[in-house]
Amino acid sequence: xxxxxxxxxxxxxxxxxxxxxxxxxxxxxxxxxxxxxxxxxxxxxxxxxxxxxxxxxxxxxxxxxxxxxxxxxxxxxxxxxxxxxxxxxxxxxxxxxxxxxxxxxxxxxxxxxxxxxxxxxxxxxxxxxxxxxxxxxxxxxxxxxxxxxxxxxxxxxxxxxxxxxxxxxxxxxxxxxxxxxxxxxxxxxxxxxxxxxxxxxxxxxxxxxxxxxxxxxxxxxxxxxxxxxxxxxxxxxxxxxxxxxxxxxxxxxxxxxxxxxxxxxxxxxxxxxxxxxxxxxxxxxxxxxxxxxxxxxxxxxxxxxxxxxxxxxxxxxxxxxxxxxxxxxxxxxxxxxxxxxxxxxxxxxxxxxxxxxxxxxxxxxxxxxxxxxxxxxxxxxxxxxxxxxxxxxxxxxxxxxxxxxxxxxxxxxxxxxxxxxxxxxxxxxxxxxxxxxxxxxxxxxx
Length: 446
Fold this sequence. Notes:
Layout: H1 5-26, H2 32-45, H3 74-79, H4 83-96, H5 98-109, H6 111-122, H7 125-132, H8 141-153, H9 157-164, H10 174-187, H11 191-216, H12 235-250, H13 267-275, H14 292-303, H15 306-325, H16 343-347, H17 352-365, E1 373-376, E2 389-392, E3 405-409, H18 410-414, E4 424-430, E5 433-438
Parallel strand pairs: 1-2, 1-3
Antiparallel strand pairs: 3-5, 4-5
Helix pairs in contact: 1-4, 1-5, 1-6, 5-6, 5-8, 5-14, 6-15, 8-9, 8-10, 8-14, 10-11
């Protein structure tokens, strides 16, 4: 396989992912998650703890989820402050994972198969959905895990360990993935090294979840335990939704990934998702499957030889193409369908009315001055987090927290009681975007 080809594929993936993320932000289709992470990175860039007022006044985001790896974005954000920096960085991080997957496939299966696997991986629904859905810290886990598993498949044990260890800094569940990589290492004959890595991963998980997060949390506890085992969906529908996601995870590999023990690296992520009572974790949308994509594709390459690859790689490309187009899947529970197809957005430009409304909304938001305290709702949040202290409306205003400004939508404003009594008056109302100011003279400005 030509050495530059994996990097060419990664460059194309970067352009695709950046276009998806930036396009959605430009159309005002990003919201709370992007705003929360921007507040954390903005704080790091200002050499402060990652306080995210969108989660609540004074909330340290490391007490919610453990992701100190975000500090690496601080220098770029200091140079180019704004949500676009996070979206471009996420695109670059996700795209970098294409290199080890395509490189391994090229070495094992030949140049043509390597190009095919790299293309299928770069367009896999878990990666594309993550690139299109705002910004999330798990993007950093994708290239780390891809590199660790590629090194493991090539028999480079020490490098595999070195690439897997930083996963403990990405999110609190990923130390268990490090432990699973240790198990894979042991199954490859490096039992002592695998046992040490597994022990390190388990110990790191305990320290983070039992000690670090509770110490930084306002509740002095890890608040996501309640998701495990919670039932809010009929059991048959829940089981069907979970099974469908498992099928769609393995379908791009022609189900051959199950032949490789490297698939065990994905078990912790699959386990917490399927055990959770939150139906959004069972589905195929959002960013929850991004970490699993390098696992299933590296396992796929590890399981097939050059002869089987002659039919398996074309099948992988065909299935990926079908999933990219979007499947007409029924919604069994919230977040489980219909299957998203963000690549369609690039093929059809936004409607003129959508562009006009987005431009109008940005002009209305200019009423909020830089440095202001503002409670904002939904898709208005990441339009303000780079230049203001933003709270989540309608949770704020509340007793003791009364920002001077509110930026919201017409339906949210009318459905929120008590704003008049708190002294808020409308100062702008245009195309469904409403700006309120505390103790201001009434009279909307169009």
